[in-house]
Amino acid sequence: MSLSKKMSRIDSSPIRRAFELASKIENPINFSIGQPHFPCPQNIVEAMKKALDNGKTSYTLTAGIPELREAMANKYRTENSISYATAERVLVTSGISSSLFLLFNALVDPDDECLVISPYFLMYPSMLGFYGAKVTTLDQNFTPEMVSKLKDRKFKLIIFSSPSNPTGKILSKTQLTALAELAESTGAHLISDEIYELFDYDNKFISVGSFYEKTITLSGFSKTYNMTGLRLSTILAPQEIITALTTLQQYTVVCAPAPVQWAGLEALKTDMSSYIQDYREKRDYVYDNLKDHYEVEKSDGAFYFFLKVPIRDEDFVNKAVEKEKLILVPGYIFCEDHNHVRLSFASEWDSLKKGIAALQRLA
Amino acid sequence: MSLSKKMSRIDSSPIRRAFELASKIENPINFSIGQPHFPCPQNIVEAMKKALDNGKTSYTLTAGIPELREAMANKYRTENSISYATAERVLVTSGISSSLFLLFNALVDPDDECLVISPYFLMYPSMLGFYGAKVTTLDQNFTPEMVSKLKDRKFKLIIFSSPSNPTGKILSKTQLTALAELAESTGAHLISDEIYELFDYDNKFISVGSFYEKTITLSGFSKTYNMTGLRLSTILAPQEIITALTTLQQYTVVCAPAPVQWAGLEALKTDMSSYIQDYREKRDYVYDNLKDHYEVEKSDGAFYFFLKVPIRDEDFVNKAVEKEKLILVPGYIFCEDHNHVRLSFASEWDSLKKGIAALQRLA
Fold first, then answer.
1. Domains in chain B, CATH or no CATH each
2. Report field, pTM of the whole predicted structure over 0.90
3. A73 pLDDT above the threshold of 80
4. Residue A272: phi, psi to the nearest 5?
5. A334: distance to nearest CA of chain B, Å?
6. Which is nearest to A208 in space by CA: A114, A117, A94?
7. DSSP state letter for A341
8. Which of A102, A195, A219, B79 is the most exposed place for a label (fewest CB within 10 A)?
9. Mutate which of A9, A254, A270 to disrupt the B interface (most B C-beta within 10 Å)?
10. ipTM, 2 decimals?
11. Quick one: pLDDT at residue A19?
12. What SS3 class is residue B149?
C-alpha cells in the first residue's frame, strides 16, 4: 500500500499510547489525561438537547451560526479586551486541531520557517512538519533580547499556547509584546492558542490580541467546559484570513456540529469559577508537595506541571507504571530533550494525593 | 496578508453562492439543496439526547466507539455483501469531506495522477488540485474498453460516487469491475463514495468492495438520515490504510462528535423505506415531466437530475432566478463543460411541482 510522503513524517501520538497503557492496567492513577475530570455542566447539555428538539441537525452556514459568532465577538471584547472583535472576524470550527489544520493549510507552504515556543503542544511542530514547514523553537522563558536576535529571520508563522500545554506557563505582557513586534517586523502570522485561558490561577493571563490587531486568536470550548468530545472552537483573525479559512472549511470540515454550536452559546453564560478554584487548590497542592523533590516551575495555568526527572523520560514513565501504576506522559513529545514528564492534575483529590505520594517515592 | 500557494487553487463554492442567493430572494423555489427535505428521524434524535444524558461529551477513541465500528462492519457484511468487513477495518470520522481530507493527505503527493469519474462531486478535483495532484476525468458512461486504454497510466487514486452527485447515475457491475481491474493493474487506490447508497430507486446499487477487497468505501449518515449538521461518516479500507488514517485523524479531526457516534448506532436500525419511496415517486415525476423538454438521463439514485440546458449554464441559472425565482446549481462545477444544471428533487411536492412547471417554461 503506497502512502503519501507526508505520512512518513508523523507517527501515533505517545499521548494516545499512554491512554492505551492506562486501559490495560487495573486501577491506574492516571496523570496523563488532557481533559478536565469534571462532567460537562448540565445547562450546556440541556441546551444541546433543546437544539436537537428544535431540529438543529442540518448544515449550518460554513462560518458558524450568527448567534455564536456574535456572542464570541462580545466575549472577545469584554473578557479579552479585544476591542476590534466583530462577528465577521470570527470563524466557528470543530476543535483547536481543526483550527490548526485550516491555518497550516491556508498559511504555510513547504520550506516556510515557523517559530514555536517550547515546550509546545505536540500538534504544532508535528503538523507543521507534516506540511513540510521548518520549525525553529524558542524557550518559553525567553527575554525580549532573545526575540530581537531573530529579527532577520524570515518567519511565516509564530505559534504558542498560553496558558501552556504542557507547562502551565502564562506568557507575560513583555514577552507577548516582543512576539508581536517580531511578527510585525518579519511579516509572520502570530497565532495565540488560548484554549486554557480560563485556567488562570493568579490572574496573569493576557490576550496578545488585546494590543496586536493582526493576532490570530484560537479559543476552545473543550477544556473549559469538558466538551472535548463535542468538537467546538473559534478563530478570531483579520477579515482576509477569516475569508480564506471559511473557503477552506467549505471543502473540509464543512461546519462545526450544529447542535454543539447552540450548546456553545449556553456555555458562554456558565460560571466556571468553582471548578477553577478547585484546580487552583490542586495546582498549589502539587507544587507544595513536589517542589522539594523535583526541579519544577510553578504552573500558572492549564492543569499541567512539567517536571524535570532524574532519569531519561521514557524510563521514568515506565518505572512509574511498573512500580506505582502511575501514568505520565514523556516530555520529549513537547520539547527537544528527554529530561521531563508531563503531569495532569485534572483528577479527583483522592487519586491526586496517591499520585503525588507515588511521585515523591519515585524522586 | 500572505496565504499559502495552495489557497490560490480553490475558491468559494458556487453551491454556497446558490445558498446565499436563495437567502436573498423571497419565497424562492430552491432546487439547489444537497440534503434531504425531511427531518432527522426522532428515534435518532432521542438516541443522541440519551447519549448526552449518559455523559458522552468527552473524547472517544480516535478510530471511533467500538460499538459503532462493530455495527458498521456488520452493516457492510449484511447490506453491502462485503464479507471481509471487520470492526478493525472501519474508521469513524466526521463527514465525507473529512474522509476525503484524510485520504487525500494520507495517499496523495503533489503531481500524482488521479482519475475522477465525471460528472463528479466538486470536492474531488478541488481538493486533489489543492494538494497539487493532477486530475484526469472519465465520463460516467464509460465502457470497459475505454478503461483498458488507461492501463499504462500511473494513477495513484481513482474516485467516484455511485449513486452519483450530481447525476444520480449508479455504476453497473461491468463498470465497477473495469475500475477495480484498472486499480489493481496500476496500483491505484480505488475510492467508492457511497453516501447516497440508500437512495437507489431500481435496486441497481452494488458496492465495488463486495468483490474487490482493496476498495476504500466511504459511507455517510448525513444524507440518509438528514444528519448533515451532525458530522458523521465511516471509512472501510484495508488495515494498513485505516492505521494511517487513524494516525492522521489524531492530529486533525481527533474524533467524530461523541454523542453523534451513539446516534449513528440508532440510525442503522432505522427503516427509511417510506422516505425512499417518496423520493422514488419524485424521481419519476421529474423525469416524466422534463424528458420531453430537456436532454436528460433518468436518475437512478441520490436526489439529483443533471439537465442539459439550451444556453450557457450560468446564464440559465440567472434566468431561472430572475424569471421564476428558481434556484439551480450551474453544471460547470461538476464537469468540464457549461451545458448543464443540477436539480435537486429533495423537496416538498408543492414546491417540486411549481419548480418543474417553471423548468418547462424555461426550456
1. 5-40+272-362 (3.90.1150.10), 42-267 (3.40.640.10)
2. yes
3. yes
4. -105, 10
5. 14
6. A117
7. E
8. B79
9. A254
10. 0.95
11. 67
12. coil
